[in-house]
Write a structure and sequence with these properties.
Oligomer: single chain
Distance between the termini: 13 Å
Helix content: 25-40%
Order of helices and strands: EEEHEH
Number of strands: 4
Shape: elongated
Length: about 80
């Protein structure tokens, strides 16, 4: 994975991000916590540390899942 420094910070951010709209499982589909966890785990295993989310994905379930994931994996991101 290639990384770039974020602005004037010392944060190195992956050049590829994970857009988390799909964590909700798709439009009109029920949220699947296990699938969402698998997607996030796979992204981190590939070196992705740039996660893009919004509070409108699956009625905020995607955003909450990302928050819990980041809280548990903070040192790896």
């Amino acid at each position: 994975m290639n990384y770039r420094r974020l602005g004037k910070t010392n944060l190195n951010i992956s050049e590829i991000s994970l857009g988390t709209w799909q964590l909700g499982g798709g439009w009109g589909q029920p949220f699947d916590d296990y699938k969402a966890q698998a997607v996030l785990e796979a992204a981190v295993e590939q070196g992705i540390n740039f996660l893009d989310t919004a509070d409108v994905y699956s009625d905020q379930q995607s955003e909450r899942k990302v928050g819990r994931f980041v809280g548990h994996r903070r040192e790896q991101l």
